[in-house]
Design brief:
Largest sheet of chain B: 3 strands, antiparallel
Strand order of the largest sheet of chain A: 1-2
Distance between the termini of chain A: 49 Å
Largest interface: A-B, 26 and 29 residues
Strand content of chain A: under 5%
Strand order of the largest sheet of chain B: 1-3-2
Oligomer: heterodimer
Distance between the termini of chain B: 47 Å
Number of strands of chain B: 3
Radius of gyration of chain B: 16 Å
Number of strands of chain A: 2
Structural class of chain B: mainly alpha
Number of helices of chain A: 10
Shape of chain A: elongated
Structural class of chain A: mainly alpha
Radius of gyration of chain A: 27 Å
Number of helices of chain B: 4
Helix content of chain B: 40-55%
Order of helices and strands of chain A: HHHHHEEHHHHH
Chain lengths: ~375, ~120
């Protein structure tokens, strides 16, 4: 007797075993209620496919079943888990904004210490900057996309807070902003991935890595485009929010605009040739463009050789520029997000509102 | 028994739901039986995967279109762990409403000569 039926049975058993494991993709209540029946149906179908068409039939059925599994699991998860209440979105957005903002501030602690030390102790502490920069550069780099992911999460919360007054227009603005922020995440990830994956030491103000295919340029374009979209969405949102007083606190209505301006201006700074801000913070979450313009064109990026060791102007001016660029503006960006988080935090009365911000669950069928 | 909405308010049905209603219109069936019936009725063109099948069943149970039944057509030949489903009165009305809606569409297509081989009325 041939081994084929035995092999088929074994393949079916293996398929069922694998399918059982994949059921973890479904939400737990659904799995508990229907998991066993789905496995039973799957086993029946596998047997039928395997005995009628052999391995090809089994593969064909797996193709259908795996596509079905992914699509229906995602749909079921969306149905059971994502239709969160408005308050949940607001709370989540608020937490994301506060955590993201505080993280930016924390990342600036080393820069703050270095800059202040440079101001106080002159050229000797430049060495500290070099060492600290070497250690912290990559951490900042790799953290930036994660921070922006938090901001992506904060945006639906912002819309949820204003949804009652802004309606569809607010939703469109939020979607534009989310797309922009997502592009920033992608761009920052590309930019950060190059040095992070190559293990080449970064020594400010340079960071050497290989980029034969010019991926960093692609990343920067993504960040730039993302920032432009982010600003558009946030500016429109802010204008509408100010007209409708949609965010509760009066001052909160202007925060989206401020965040958009900070994000885009920082990207403009980021693209200055040889800009060390770019090295310290790829998404360049910081800096007022006018401030940098004033400072940048009057102070070169390095202390001229003939001025090292003498001339209080250069010794103070360069660190001062560092301080302005790397710290003050970072903290401004950070503080704005924290303020946004505070403005979003659920208030008494929010719980009673029943409106949801997700698309309504589709009719029963 | 709860009150049901108007059948028309649930239209249009998804293809999977309508096929399941059609499969159950001729008698109670278990999950695998429904899949076989759907495949047979459509010459294999429509295949419902286990996930879509049970998601649809869950929604249809919640909407009161179908219900579980304890009866077994042939208990000796069947695995008692299987769940059987049958159409409710409301489910039948929903199926009729959807069929009527589709029939109207087909008539419209025929009148516009979009169905080859079937003459439309001017």
């Amino acid at each position: 007797m041939s081994n084929a039926p035995h092999a088929t049975t074994r393949t079916v058993r293996l398929s069922v075993w694998l399918y059982k494991r994949l059921l973890v993709l479904y939400p737990q209540p659904f799995r508990q209620q229907y998991g066993a029946h789905m496995v039973q149906v799957f086993r029946d179908c596998c047997r039928e496919a395997a005995y009628s068409d052999g391995a090809i039939g089994l593969w064909r059925f797996w193709l259908i079943a795996s596509g079905d599994l992914v699509v229906s699991a995602l749909a079921e998860r969306r149905r059971e888990e994502l239709p969160m209440t408005r308050t949940t979105w607001i709370r989540l957005g608020s937490l994301a904004a506060i955590i993201g903002g505080i993280t930016i501030a924390l990342l600036q602690i080393p820069n703050t210490v270095i800059a202040v030390n440079m101001l106080l102790t002159r050229e000797g502490l430049i060495q500290i900057q070099l060492h600290a920069g070497t250690y912290f550069q990559r951490e900042v780099w790799s953290t930036t996309p994660v921070i922006w992911l938090l901001f992506v999460l904060a945006l639906p919360g912002m819309y949820a807070r204003a949804a009652d007054r802004l309606g569809a227009f607010g939703r469109i603005c939020t979607v534009i902003s989310v797309i922009g922020a997502a592009l920033i995440v992608i761009g920052d990830t590309i930019v950060a991935a190059l040095p992070l994956t190559q293990g080449v030491a970064c020594v400010p103000p340079t960071c050497a890595y290989f980029d034969f295919h010019n991926y960093s340029a692609i990343g920067r374009i993504a960040v730039f485009t993302g920032c432009a979209l982010f600003l558009c969405g946030m500016a429109l949102f802010s204008i509408a929010a100010m007209r409708q007083r949609a965010m509760g606190h009066g001052w909160a209505n202007i925060l989206p605009l401020v965040l958009g301006i900070l994000a885009l201006s920082s990207t403009a700074i980021l693209n200055y040739p040889g800009n060390f801000v770019y090295l310290s913070s790829p998404s360049a979450n910081l800096i007022g463009f006018p401030l940098l313009n004033i400072i940048w064109f009057h102070i070169p990026s390095e202390v001229p050789a003939d001025r090292v060791g003498g001339g209080i102007y250069w010794l103070l001016a360069v660190p001062l520029r560092d301080l302005a660029v790397m710290v003050i503006t970072s903290l401004a960006f950070s503080a704005t997000w924290v303020l946004m988080g505070i403005a979003l935090w659920p208030r008494r009365g929010d719980e009673t509102m029943t409106r949801t911000v997700t698309a309504p669950v589709e009719p029963a069928c | 028994m709860g009150t049901h909405p108007e059948p028309e308010s649930l239209l249009p049905l998804s293809p999977a739901v309508f096929h399941i209603l059609l499969a159950l219109s001729t008698g109670e069936r278990h999950g695998y039986g429904i899949m076989q019936e759907v495949a047979a009725a459509t010459d294999g063109q429509m295949r419902i995967g286990p996930g879509t099948l049970y998601r649809s069943i869950k929604q249809m149970l919640a909407a009161g279109m179908i219900e579980e039944t304890d009866e077994r057509p042939d208990p000796d030949l069947d695995d008692e762990r299987r769940r059987y489903y049958q159409l409710t009165g409301f489910g039948r009305r929903v199926a009729q409403a959807e069929a009527a809606r589709l029939a109207r569409l087909v008539r419209e297509a025929v009148s516009r000569r979009l169905l080859p081989g079937i003459e439309g009325t001017p």
